[in-house]
Amino acid sequence: MAEILVLVDHTEGVVRKPTLELLTLARRLGEPSAVFLGPDADSATEALGRYGAHKVYVVDAPEVDELLVTPAVDALTQIAGSTRPATILLPSNPDGKETAARVALRLESGLITDAVDVVAGADGPVTEQSAFAATYQVTAHVTRGIPVITVKPNAAAPEPAPVTPEVVKWDVTFGPASTAVKVLSRSPRERGDRPELTEADIVVSGGRGVNGAENFAVIERVADTLGAAVGASRAAVDAGWYPHSHQVGQTGTQVSPQLYLAAGISGAIQHRAGMQTSKTIVAVNKDQDAPIFELADYGVVGDLFQVLPQLVEEIERRRS
């Protein structure tokens, strides 16, 4: 069976959800093999095997922490050059897309980014992408070299397929070009108890209709009740009501959760481009002519300050 390389996204050995999704998609195409960078492979191997990784290529070198994306580029390029996999899958985040572009260039291969689905085709993997602010769905496949594909989070639900992976220690040669830039220091970002915006199954977002930073407590209460991430429209972020890191949209973070709840968001094209691939969209807005209702699966015309507290009460009542 054809080997499919998957670059592991992890935090100190804890495998992040997008990698489990990639392993699930990789099983559609062949036999998944994970590429792990860093010193904590032992703690990640069990999780990778649980989701179908038959091999785990481990690259444990000081350069992994000292350099930027180049360790991943060098590792994937050299492993792929030796093993000749059928496909290389990476998470569609900033580092993943930069790594994918450099790997594709070195391998003289075709590149597809921001796929929302991947299936096996007669001539290799076939991807689906959302194009032109999610106005069109596009299918594509690579016609040259080893397909290098980045996949958006929540493109597939992680499905276990337990195996006992073979661990392969891999020595990577880092060239002068790769070591030209080094990381001098890192400051960890403060994280709350809510899930990451890009990885959350549920996202609750507030917009101009929230009408103030203090009123985002209503959005946060709904999010916490649902175990969701909190998002914000560009209007809310520009007004200083919520941090820019939570902006959902074409110039912010693009999300594709199972459920997206938009409260007080009109639905401008900039925002729609960042959440249009959500599986189910619920909108709450006082304006019955708001563009968001054209996109929503379910809509409530009403004041969010009346609707959302009732929603929280009903959820809590059903759980009790």
Please explain how this structure is put together.
By secondary structure, the protein is α/β, with parallel strands linked by helices. The chain folds into 2 domains: 3-169, Rossmann fold; 202-319, Rossmann fold, CATH 3.40.50.1220. Helices cover 31% and strands 26% of the residues. Helix 9 links the parallel strand 15 (280-285) and strand 16. The chain is built from 10 helices and 16 strands. The mean pLDDT is 93.
Q: Concise description?
A:
By secondary structure, the protein is α/β, with parallel strands linked by helices.
Mean of pLDDT? 93
Distance between the termini: 49 Å
Major pleated sheet? 9 strands, mixed
Shape: elongated
Strand order of the largest sheet: 9-8-7-10-6-1-4-5-11
- What is the highest CATH level, the class of the largest domain? Alpha Beta
**How helix-rich are the residues, as a percent range?**
25-40%
The CATH topology of the largest domain comes to Rossmann fold
Unreliable segments of 5+ consecutive residues: none
The number of E-state strands comes to: 16
Rg over CA atoms: 21 Å
Tally of discrete structural domains: 2
Q: What would you say the CATH architecture of the largest domain is?
A: 3-Layer(aba) Sandwich
CATH superfamily of the largest domain: HUPs
- Please report which band the strand proportion falls in: under 5%, 5-15%, 15-25%, 25-35%, 35-45% or over 45%: 25-35%
**Secondary structural class:** alpha/beta
Order of helices and strands: EEEHEHEHHEHEEEEEEHEHEHEHEH
What is the count of helical runs? 10
